[in-house]
Amino acid sequence: MCDVTVVCCWTNEKMYSDFVNTLKAQSIQSKIISIDNRGNKGFKSCASAYNSVINQVKTKYVIYSHQDILLNQNDILEKFLSYLNRIKRDDILGVAGVNFDSSSGISNITHRNNLSGKFMHGTASFTENGMTECGTVDECFFGGYTQHFADYPFDEELCNNWHLYAAEQCLRIKASSIGDVWVCSIPLLHLSSGTVTPSFQYGFYRLCRKYSASFTFIRTTCAFSRTDFIHLFPRFVYLWCGAVLRKSGLRK
Fold it and tell me: What is the pLDDT of residue 230?
């Protein structure tokens, strides 16, 4: 019996093919939903792509994965499923995350640094059961109960690009006290450390604005800020100036 579906929105055929090959080599079976978005076919954001296929997921659990993930041990999916079996219906589970009160990431994955090209190993100390509660998880590989994502779709208006859709889900369930956020000790391989683009920065600014009444400080794996006006206003000015310069051609 298959309990989990893996959904991936991809633009690089070679990366996606390598990911699927490691997924098919796992010790347990999974359903795979492929979203071919080469040339932005129909989708301008991961949030809209993932929401479009949630009704196709018939398994108990769903996992959302980046295309540049490798499950480089054949029991990784089985281990992740064992952690999914321990969370509640409206919890979120990831493999990399961060707490609001710490600058250290929580992860046992290995990722390639975009600048140096070197592989960096996670250094998190997990509790005895291999799970640690956190503030937000990274989008590279996360999931939970399928019914949760059917009931609480990704925010397509705020996350109208390729970033922060998992972080927004985490903040939403924590702000409404309907679930918890967890990161588990899974040693998969991530071939990128992510890119902080202007669209990411603007999305993070809007994320802080949306949840300023619930959190005085927000941290993701790529950005952090206090959410009060004094701290957000300079960030807004910086983003506005950058947008003006890009429009004028003075900055890419």
Answer: 76
Tell me which H or E stretch contains 56: none
Q: How far apart are CA 136 and CA 119, in angstroms?
A: 23
Question: What pLDDT digit, counting tens, does each position of 187-212 carry?
Answer: 899 987 667 677 888 888 889 999 99
The residues, ordered by sequence, that sit 6+ positions from 86 with a Cβ below 8 Å of its Cβ are 129, 131
- The pLDDT value given to residue 117: 56
- Using H for helix, E for strand and C for coil, what is the string for 218-242? EECCCCEEECCHHHHHHHHHHHHHH
Looking up tokens 């006290």 gives 177
pLDDT reading at 244 higher than 60: no
Domains of the chain: 4-199 (3.90.550.10)
**Alpha-carbon distances, residue 110 vs 113, 122, 123, 162, 183 (angstroms):** 10, 6, 10, 22, 15
The 105-107 sheet, strands edge to edge: 105-107, 96-98, 136-137
Q: What value does the mean pLDDT take over residues 86-112?
A: 89
Give the Cα separation of 81 and 61 in Å (integer). Answer: 8
Provide the 3-class DSSP secondary structure of residue 131. Answer: strand
pTM of the model: 0.90
From CA 143, how far away is CA 168, in angstroms rounded? 13
CB atoms within 10 A of CB 93: 25
Exposure string of 181-214, with b = 16+ CB inside 10 Å and e = fewer, is: bbbbbbbbbbbebbeeeeebbbbbbbbbebbbee
